[in-house]
């Protein structure tokens, strides 16, 4: 069975799920945007983000923050987090515009990294490419191109990633406005994570609900 998620719902659920797994709200917002960006191209962003968040859960995510002073970038933990690292790359997107190519060490789920970098491409109205193993994902202002072995898109871990500005002119595909179809079991796990961000009801909140004894409307 499957469940249809609008793109707005995709972003909202994954943002909350990321927060539930310990990411700060700012980074959680990036996680939601990355999942939505991939879903718009019918790529498994929600499922991959879920898998990544499940791996992060219970750990100090700061261990996965990249050391940007070295090449390739590395973290204090074993792997670079694609969302945190993508945000750091977006902060340095002006350098990519000027021709700087960033090299990364061992990275989890690089497709999520490409999606986060894609937000910067849209902002700068340019093309940023993220390459790993046998695949290149090029993000346009409002489009996408994929070259190489598509089986490598969903790799959980890669040893090296490159990010740089590209000179491609025409994307292979544009985003879809259709709802994203996700497996019901995967959606249930995302929903359970997102539910943790809701504040539990208290006597005070219940007492404040509704119009109360006086209604002047």
Question: What does this entry look like structurally?
Answer:
By secondary structure, the chain is α+β, with helices and mostly antiparallel strands. The chain has one domain (2-199). 41% of the residues lie in helices and 18% in strands. It has helices at residues 7-20, 25-40, 45-56, 82-91, 93-97, 110-124, 184-195, 203-208; strands spanning 2-5, 66-67, 74-75, 102-104, 107-108, 128-132, 135-139, 144-148, 157-158, 161-165, 180-183. The strands form four sheets. It has a five-stranded antiparallel sheet with strand order 4-10-6-7-8. The protein has a two-stranded antiparallel sheet with strand order 1-11. The protein has a two-stranded antiparallel sheet with strand order 2-3. Strand 7 (135-139) and strand 8 (144-148) form a beta hairpin. The longest helix is centred in the first third of the chain and has 16 residues, at 25-40. 41% of the residues are buried. Residues 201-217 have low confidence and may be disordered.
């Amino acid at each position: 069975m499957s469940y249809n998620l609008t793109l707005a719902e995709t972003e909202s659920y994954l943002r909350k799920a990321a927060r539930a797994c310990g990411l700060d709200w700012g980074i959680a917002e990036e996680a939601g945007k990355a999942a939505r960006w991939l879903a718009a191209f019918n790529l498994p962003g929600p499922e991959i983000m879920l898998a990544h968040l499940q791996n992060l859960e219970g750990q100090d995510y700061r261990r996965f923050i990249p050391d940007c002073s070295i090449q390739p970038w590395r973290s204090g933990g074993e792997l670079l987090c694609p969302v945190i690292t993508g945000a750091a790359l977006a902060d340095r997107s002006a350098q990519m515009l000027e021709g700087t190519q960033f090299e990364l060490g061992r990275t989890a789920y690089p497709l999520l990294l490409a999606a986060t970098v894609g937000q910067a491409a849209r902002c700068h109205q340019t093309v940023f490419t993220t390459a790993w193993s046998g695949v290149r994902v090029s993000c346009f202002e409002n489009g996408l191109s994929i070259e190489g072995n598509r089986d490598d898109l969903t790799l959980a871990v890669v040893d090296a990633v490159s990010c740089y500005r590209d000179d491609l002119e025409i994307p292979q595909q544009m985003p879809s406005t259709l709802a994203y179809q996700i497996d019901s079991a995967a959606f249930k796990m995302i929903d359970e994570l997102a539910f943790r961000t809701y504040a539990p009801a208290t006597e005070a909140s219940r007492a404040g609900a509704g119009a109360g004894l006086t209604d002047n409307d």
